[in-house]
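Review box. Two proteins, two foldings.
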Amino acid sequence: MSVGSAMMLLIVGLFVSPASASSCVGVRVRSGDNLQLKINARPQGTTFCLEKGTYLLRQGVLVKSYDRIIGEPGTVLDGQNVVVTGLWGYGGSLGQKNVVIRGIGLRNFRGEAISAGWNWLVSRSNIRNSTVGIVISNGIVLRDNRIHHNRRIGVTGGPVNGALIERNQIDHNNTARNDVGVHAGGAKIIGGSAGSSKLVWRGNWVHHNIGNGLWMDYNVRNVTLEENLVEDNTAIGIYYEVSWNGIIRNNAVRN
């Protein structure tokens, strides 16, 4: 696959306009509202339509299973460098599962901007200026996001199984210049003794990270990395370390 073809995939995926909350049918939320109280007052499976504006959070937002958090263009959740985690849920079968996050900007969290439960869909969101962009969990679909300028790493998680990460721009992460040989850079999946498996990384643009671009670290099995453009990272572009049964094909890796 040529670099030009890879870039075409990225153009299709990364520059789709976010869904508008004005067309969202659900509970309307304004920037002066307390989003957590809105969620607490509704049953699981509620759609929340966030109007444009900056939401200055004083605490992390724990969602409920099957909730949908939809933002119109210009919606930003700001942790003010005080809140540890932005949008979050517990993993596992008893955690907050099957949540949709779409069209949300998240910035300035001391920890993770998003810490996902099982089977979440996170799309068309701008995740930046936090210590960690997103911690993924089993069954996540991470699609058409920009994840950038986070202090340690853009995407991480593990052990994790059955995840799809496609058409994201993951760039300029590890701004705090943490040790790139430990846990920093663009993206890192950890297998550990339990192992991570059945992840697909497809059509992502991973660039200008301080550290490795895409790093699968120890006991990460049956992973497919394809059609990614990985360039201008300071360490290894695609690092498949002490892992097996991976398919690495049709990527462009340079500089």
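Next protein.
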Amino acid sequence: MTTEIPTLCRATATELHAMYRIGTVSPVDVAEAVLDRIDRLGQELNAFVFVDRDAAMDAARSSAKRWRDNAPRGRLDGIPVTVKDMILARGWPTLRGSRTVDPQGPWELDSPSVARLREGGAVLTGKTTMAEFGWKGTGDCPLNGVTLNPVVPGKTPGGSSSGAAAGLADFMGPLALGTDAGGSVRIPASFTGTVGFKATFGAIPNLPASPMGTLSNVGPMARTVADARMLFEAVAVPDRRDPWSLSRPGRSGDLRSLEGLRIAFVSDSPGPRPVEPDVLSVIGDATDAAVTAGAIVEHVDSAFLAEARSSLLTLWRAGAAYLARTIPDDRLDLVDPGLRSEMELGKDLLGADFVAAEQARWRVCSAINQLFDRFDLVLTPTVATPPPDLGSDLYDPSRERHWTDWTPFTFPFNLSRHPAISVPFGTTWAGIPVGVQLVMPHGADCHLLSVAEHFEALGNGRKADGVGQHPK
């Protein structure tokens, strides 16, 4: 037996905005419906670190008054949004999935993205669960335990933005802010049949600086591309406190069709784990549909990404070693054992190793840029495999097993800083969602979102039955 999903919880942010405009629905009604669903199912799903019902209802009532006065602050006024526990939000602890962080704070600062959401009248409902310090692609951490996948019982929802994706998939709000330093919004989006967008690095400002440096991004997540675009446009506002912050995204304009779009299709894995046939079958359907829609698709060998994994591992481990310096020695034993191993490996690195990794990163980025001389879009599987079993430990440095084995297509574009989005496109024979990853040149964020909407339309009807249908 499945839980009946209230109509207001099913509504997209785009639909809610339209209903607010004509007065058929109040932000108060929507907030109550979403919060009731979170209260009923959020703890069992383990999608939330905590929920601030009082603050959310206050924000919803203020929004309702603005709509009555015909003075909304923007398109997100009154729209519920969740915030990953990696992102600062004033008055809320930001524990980063770790038992090493002091929950007492102080918590006096909003990240730029959260500040823009508050200014725009969004209803922030709470903080979502994550892998500790965002270090891996599965949805568990020592602080909060294991987050469930509401779409595929018994499988991980992915990570590290696990709670964000699980909450979206189970209709606990239409929008979520995640972070992505190696695929952390795109991996869980693929595993839950939702949308995860990593913009051009710097398009969405952030603070404080991440230990993972210029790999890390704030990423909009949603159930539809149109909603992800709404969230992106609200938070992609320059902020001088972030030295990497870019001007507002350009190259906008809606794409009327895929006619003539030149697509580089990368289907072979550049990593140690091959793409599983079930995943490749769905991605093949996506390219076939694109060709039918008038696109020009050409297979491209993944050799141009060959150096990406070694570069990322060095940079990640250096970041982990730095992170270890910020944790008191008597609390290091509280860290996820896999992350602790990464920290120890990072301590053995030399400065020359870091420079070599940055040189390899430069070569990967250059190769991708040159690919865009011939193509408009790169298309890959988001992840090489269906979601692993829930709670399975895939990290074993002694046997060279690592989460990057099965995510070889996401992290290269963190290295290169290109915009990349995961869009659901069909399921495996077992009904497990599969995401297609789309990548475009630096700064082409709005154009990429437009292309993604076309792929989303082509994939409609191919999603697994029961998406968001919680088993209780």
